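Q: I'm writing up a methods section and want to include an example of the input and output format. Could you take the sequence below and give the corresponding predicted structure tokens, formatted cleanly so I can copy it straight into the document?
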Amino acid sequence: MSETITIQHNAETYTLPYTIIKSKRKTFSLSIDENANIIFRVPLRATNKQVRQLAEEKKHWIITNYLKMREKAESKPHSDLSEVQRTAIEARYKEAARSYIPKRVAYYHAMTGGTYKRISIRDQKTRWGSCSSKGTLSFNWRLMLAPPAVLDYVVVHELCHLTHMNHSKAFWQAVEAVCPDYRSLRKWLKEHGSELVL
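A: Here is the clean output for your methods example:
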């Protein structure tokens, strides 16, 4: 369900809608997605009063990050490609990803260990890669638009999840052992991931 919060910032008044998502969780979470949508994830029994109180407490964080994400969304590159052209080019990138990414997985697998069953190339909207408990490695084809070192970092990241299904200290040590500059590569992906579009 949606609510709104009114925020005064730099002599301007913003009335911002936000979405409340209730689920079986114990904590409250606040995030702003790449399209500048404000999202509260809360426990099933959370009241609207509690959510509004949290929104009020986090007003400064909300407006600061809302404006950042809105600016980023508005600055996304606009393509002059027709839909037919975009579809054809995407198909070529996906085909290239199905060939190239498994080779990078095989290369780094010798260094990371673990066991995987299959590799899936997907068109995920918010994730660059994932590793399921059943041993399926999934990668976003849009990684083909990123620098090769960034793609390799994501491959190493997911391979390390085969032996560490978390983001513990041991997991990051395993990533660093294979990819020493993973921090800068992860930062690049966070800052420029939204640009990996056709």
